[in-house]
Amino acid sequence: MNWRILLILIPFLLVGAIGINSCESGFDPEYSFYRIPVDSIQVPSSLEAGQPFEIRFYGVVGTDGCHQFSRFQTVSNPDKIGVEVMGRRTAGDGIACADVMVYLEGRALEFTVDQPGTYILEIRQPEGDPIRKTIRVKES
């Protein structure tokens, strides 16, 4: 092979390889966030101040595999603990969602109340009234 052809061909091959590797796949999933409806909760009705406890949540996250639990959002006031259970749905072109129901299945939120007293635990729903439960926190 002629050395001149090889010297001209090598830069073109390098530029082509760099161009191919820098292309994006075009797959950019989009996410939407939503409040998950909670069917029920489990929480101790009495506990000690300063001791962590768990709140367990039950409900349907979504009707296909593109739905998943995302996070808990909490707001504490002097006598109220507010919780929102947030989900995330994956969407976009070319997204295939598994045909499966997704549940909270007792997903736990660990929480600590530092001061003794009576608190209202309020689980906010996407629609309708929140779930409310009274929690009594004793001196440790």
> What value does the average pLDDT take?
87
Oligomer: single chain
What's the domain count?
1
- For the secondary structure, the number of strands is 11
SS summary, helix count = 1
User: What percent of residues are in strands?
Assistant: over 45%
Description:
With about 140 residues, the chain is mainly beta. It has one domain: Sandwich (Immunoglobulin-like). Helices cover about 15% and strands about 45% of the residues. It is built from one helix and eleven strands, in the order αβββββββββββ. It has one helix spanning about 5-20, and strands at about 30-35, 40, 45-50, 55-60, 60, 65-75, 80-90, 100-105, 105-110, 115-125, 130-140. Strands 1, 3, 6, 7, 10 and 11 form a six-stranded mixed sheet that branches. Strands 2-4-9 form a three-stranded antiparallel sheet, with no helix packed on it. β10 and β11 form a beta hairpin. It starts with a helix and ends with a strand. The model has no long low-confidence stretch (mean pLDDT about 85).
